Amino acid sequence: MLNLQESTLVLAKIRVHHGNAPITDLEARTFHEELCEMTLQEALEAVKRFYAENDTGRWCGSGDINAIVRRLRGKAKPSEAQIARECDARGLEGDAAWLYRRQRMLGRQPEEAARITASSRNPLELEPAKPERRTPVRHFLGAGDLGLGDILSRHAEPHL
Asked: Are residues 72 and 84 in the same domain?
């Protein structure tokens, strides 16, 4: 979710802690490619937490940021009991409750999970079959609307 400009901003924040060295294009692109899906706010918070806890002088890398963001997201996930209370409050049961629970465990906020659940169709429900379009049968030899029996009876030779 970060674009190249945003991930370069995160890299610049890291560089502030180590003498503010200039960032090359290759460094910026490599750093951007190594970051997992996250928002700018999550990435900046990860850098802040890394340096708040770092007493070794080690540089914060993309792997550190990814790990901190995963940890923060894990803490933000609701418990099963909390999700059950949310489902009860929204009157969700069965497949709708399952879909809501799944959305919440993926990190979606309650409002977004409820919206997705409300707009989704039941994945186990089949759509009704559409009737086949019948095309009129065209007879050969200029027979028009005659059926096969009419054609055969006219051309049938008597059996001797």
From this structure: no
> Domain for residue 156, yes or no?
no
Q: What is the pLDDT of residue 63?
A: 95
* Rg of the chain taking only CA atoms, in angstroms: 33
Q: What is the mean pLDDT of the chain?
A: 84
Whether 144 has a pLDDT exceeding 70, the answer reads no
Print the domain residue range for 94: 80-119
Residue 92, burial from CB neighbour count under 10 angstroms (0-12, 13-18, 19+): buried
Domain for residue 72, yes or no?
A: yes
pLDDT given for residue 138 in this prediction = 60
0.85 cut: is pTM over it? no
Residue 156 φ then ψ, to 5°: -75, 135
Q: Are 69 and 85 in the same domain?
A: no
Give the up-direction half-sphere exposure of residue 83: CA atoms within 13 A in the CB hemisphere: 22
Helices and strands, number each (H, E), in the chain: 8, 0
> Does an H or E element contain 53, and which?
helix 40-53
| Closest CA relative to residue 78, chosen from 95, 101, 98, 99 | 101
